[in-house]
Amino acid sequence: MTVRVRIAPSPTGNLHIGTARTALFNWLYARRHGGTFLLRIEDTDRERSREEYVQNILAGLKWLGLAVDEGPFFQTQRLPQYQAAIQGLLDRGLAYFCYCREEELEALRESQRAQKLAPRYDNRHRHLTPAQRAAYEAEGRRPVVRFRIEEPREVVWHDLVRGEIRWQTQDLGGDMVIARIEADGSVGLPLYNFAVVVDDLDMGITHVVRGEDHIANTAKQILLYEALGATPPAFGHLPLILNPQGAKISKRDGATSVDEFRQMGFLPQAFTNYMVLLGWSRRTAKSCSISLPQPSGLILTG
Ligand code: GLU
Predict the structure, then answer these.
(1) Which of 42, 81, 119, 135 has the most CB atoms less than 10 A away?
(2) 76 close to ligand 1 (CB < 6 Angstrom)
(3) Does this model's pTM top 0.90?
């Protein structure tokens, strides 16, 4: 198997140190195995995505010396592929149109909170009749596409970093929105969880290595791979970079973007060396099936 890995940043901010570290691990893994390292720009959030951030991400990776073998690919240029995949799910009854209004969903969440239940969609539009659908359409409601999540069920995968992970589908929040429908009736740009699966499949990604804040997404994504008739890639979830208080590092802790470190005068070699050591120890190296190579210029001690 030829290793194909990627990073998939959203251009909603400058290259973050966490993304840079994820990029570094993916790049090292690709280089170690003679594989390919891809860059995909996840720009489906049109309001918050900016060209200047795309440029900042590209410049940051270059400064770090993490050469990209393929890409950048842009999700906004892949709408036809997403539309075809969504149509396939709709045709097979694995996805459906939901016409709920935001106020209705808010009322549902409110009543769940009052009963001390976790907020979730109650799948109420899963079995609409054609007449009900026509009535909602006549009211001028614009639907979203939801993917059916069967419950109860357990999703299990062997994480490359964390070992076996089990997730109950009852905890995924009900049938999930994968895309919105545009005013002209066409399927619009999909949401993250759907686009990422179609992309990783089309791009032949063999190992998805990313931050552990995506673990709950992975359970959803595995269900989507299954619905699309595909075998999921291997998944590895890296611990996040934390501040001394144990919370996710944020602007309040100081510099978070690669560019800020560059401006402070850090050398890229020193910066990558620090990142590769952060989260590495004899113990993690032993339990982790990602074996880090020792590229020249990087010092691994322990
Ligand atoms: N766009 C996602 C992020 O920036 C990508 C996550 C992934 O690697 O799947 O967190």
Answers:
(1) 42
(2) no
(3) yes
